[in-house]
Amino acid sequence: MNRSNPTHRHLNASTKDAAKRIAVSFALTLVFLVGEAIAGYIANSLALLTDAAHNLTDVLALGLSWYALRLTSLPPNHQKTYGYHRAGILVALINSTSLVLISIGIFYEAYQRLASPPAVRADLLIGVGILAFVVNLITAWLVQRGSDKDLNLRSAYVHLMGDVISTLGAVVAGGIILLTQWYWVDILISLLIGVLILWNAVRILRETLNILLESTPADIIVDDIVADIMGVGGVLGVHDLHIWSISKNLHMLSAHIVTDDLPLSAGSQIQSDVSHMIRRKYGIYHTTLQLECGECDPIMLHCDLNGLKRSP
């Protein structure tokens, strides 16, 4: 039994709004990237060059995120019966993987410079760092809204917040170098930035892979939902239960519900009661419930799909 989410009618408007904000962030980041790369080369600053490299991936990440948002607004069709919601998950996977690669690159470059830290122009590092901090903070703010509910937006937001912290670190490094001539501080700051980026990337990557593997959403406890289904009048058992996500905010559920041998109208009422309860308590608006009057395997809550792979 399928029920449409009443918030679906607002998705197109919110998606268009997010796409506009990402487009503005894309333009600001692209313009600033060129200037920061030149400044980092002149200043011989690993922190600035690191941030410029991260900004380059931000441009790519924002472009991919914008394209994914455009795709998710398209309606489902015969080939894509769930629509294009997984496009955002694939972009989150690409973005989080690129963050991991960036971190590895930062660690490698820092290792190369540790033996003999090169001189760094602290004045240029501070000036460009302050400007970069302001630009990155604005772009991150533009993308932040909705990032807690959308992995695509969150992966782009983490990219941008990584830049905010990177540029703040560059300013701090420049100030210390200006006062002490400790050029190794530039390398240390870059390493700390790399660790932070890697930590956030791994978190997004783990959540993205869980969705692609159709794992049960982290905010849903299977035992609780089974107990609630069993508490609906007329339900004698539940098995072949599947709960998964199309995207971070779009959950699905299918199950076989065991009842007495009832008329169609009575069975439909039980089906409606279960769907309503799941929608109200768990926010799952897309449920597929199959009614049965006898269990195929009363101890098997989850169907083993390997058992279906039999030769005809």
Explain the overall architecture.
This protein has 312 residues and is mainly α. The protein folds into two domains: 207 residues, Up-down Bundle (Alpha-lytic protease prodomain-like); 87 residues, Cation efflux protein, cytoplasmic domain (Alpha-Beta Plaits, 2-Layer Sandwich), CATH 3.30.70. The protein is 64% helix and 9% strand. It is built from eight helices and three strands, in the order αααααααββαβ. Strands 1-2-3 form a three-stranded mixed β-sheet. β1 and β2 form a beta hairpin. α1 runs antiparallel to α2, α2 packs antiparallel against α5 and α5 packs antiparallel against α6. The longest helix is centred in the N-terminal third of the chain and has 33 residues. The N terminus is likely disordered.
Provide the descriptors you would attach to this structure in a database record.
312 residues, mainly alpha, Alpha-lytic protease prodomain-like, Alpha-Beta Plaits, 2 domains, three-stranded mixed β-sheet
Put the structure in a nutshell.
By secondary structure, the protein is mainly α. The chain has 8 helices and 3 strands, in the order αααααααββαβ. It folds into 2 domains: 6-212, Cation efflux protein transmembrane domain (Alpha-lytic protease prodomain-like), CATH 1.20.1510; 222-308, Cation efflux protein, cytoplasmic domain (Alpha-Beta Plaits, 2-Layer Sandwich), CATH 3.30.70.1350.
